[in-house]
Amino acid sequence: MYRMIKYLTLIILFLINVTIPASLDGKNNTILSDDEQKDTFLAKSLTDNSDLNDGPYLFIHDDNLIEKTVVNGEIKTRTLDLQSKKIDFKPEKAIYKNVEQIAALSDLHGQYELTIKILKNNGIIDDDLKWNFGKGHLVVVGDVFDRGDKVTEILWFLFNLEKEAKESGGKLHYLMGNHEYMVLRNDLRYIDEKYQKISKLIDTPYNELYNNQTILGRWLRSKPTVIKINDDLFVHAGISKKFSTELSNLDSVNQFFRKYLDTKKSKGKTKLDKRKRKYFGGKGPVWFRGYFNDSLNDPQVSGILNKLKVNHIIVGHTSQKEILPLYSNKIIAVDSSIKYGEYGELLLIDNGSYYRCTMDGVKSIIEEAGSHKK
Ligand code: ZN
Questions:
Q1: What pLDDT is recorded for position 12?
Q2: Which of 52, 195, 303, 316 could cross-link 141 (Cys pair, CB 3.0–4.6 Å)?
Q3: What percent of the chain has a predicted confidence (pLDDT) above 70?
Q4: How many angstroms does the Cα of residue 196 sit away from the middle of ligand 1?
Q5: Distance 285 CA to ligand 1 centre (A)
Q6: What are the tens digits of pLDDT across the range 176-216?
Q7: Sheet of strand 331-333, all strands in order from the earlier edge strand to the far edge
Q8: How far is ligand 1, taken at its centre, from the CA of residue 181, in Å?
Q9: Cα distance between residue 149 and residue 257, in whole Å
């Protein structure tokens, strides 16, 4: 009997010990069964976000900015002054003249480290990742988004580099590619798993992280789809013969993309519906693959160039092993498969001469200044 009382007292003391601290801090003190504990552990490992880091995402409100950054799987939120950041971005113009040096690369697809390596080894940025290209123009020929998991890092890097370029009298051009339009228009088939987690964590659909009430969303909406620098046209995928008739005014082409970017895709038959499909669709400037599938011969390509009054068209979108001149250099392909994260190149135009530049900074000539064949 005595032993039984002692035993019961011990049990009671033990229970008090277990429950008191739990009830003191107000936590639910339900004791889980083994199975429940196992389930909780499993659920936790499936949703374990502790290695998740991303951002910042900056949301523009009427009176302030809300900044959300994901640090080790947790959202850190800050409220900032509306005046503390640039929140309006002028639409970028389409035509630039008398530019002595131009560098171009494309289809970065979230490969931040490789992008940095290529730019650094070719002197476009310095060891501190700052602009080092003087009055030169750097053209990112679209597709920063999708596939890789360091999209946000590249976006902010380019965002800052643009400012530095301007301060040096240079310029960074970020052209819209099909993957920019896909994400902004809520086609999320190619986003990395990381961004599905981020979107869930911030409780915002991924495309809404770049809507017109965000800083990066507004910045992207100021970007062009086609530009002309000196006598060359830069566009993500290419210009078909059919689309070339639209290009008598490049600024209005870019304006059309900006105007209808946030409208729904439509299967309608009005003139406007058809025009929207011509721009955003599979044969438009951000999807066209006609320079790569033998559907055009040399005189046809010359015809397009003559119509556009340019000497070269520089395109990304269709992946190659290296910078690849086609049609006697009239078309220069600059998607050098950076998307795989292993290798990539840069096109350099220096006072009218065209060079392929490897990721280690080795230059080889594509075309000497003044030797262009029309
Ligand atoms: Zn593309």
A1: 47
A2: 316
A3: 87
A4: 21
A5: 10
A6: 999 999 999 998 999 999 999 999 999 999 999 999 999 99
A7: 95-96, 226-229, 232-235, 312-315, 331-333, 324-326
A8: 10
A9: 27
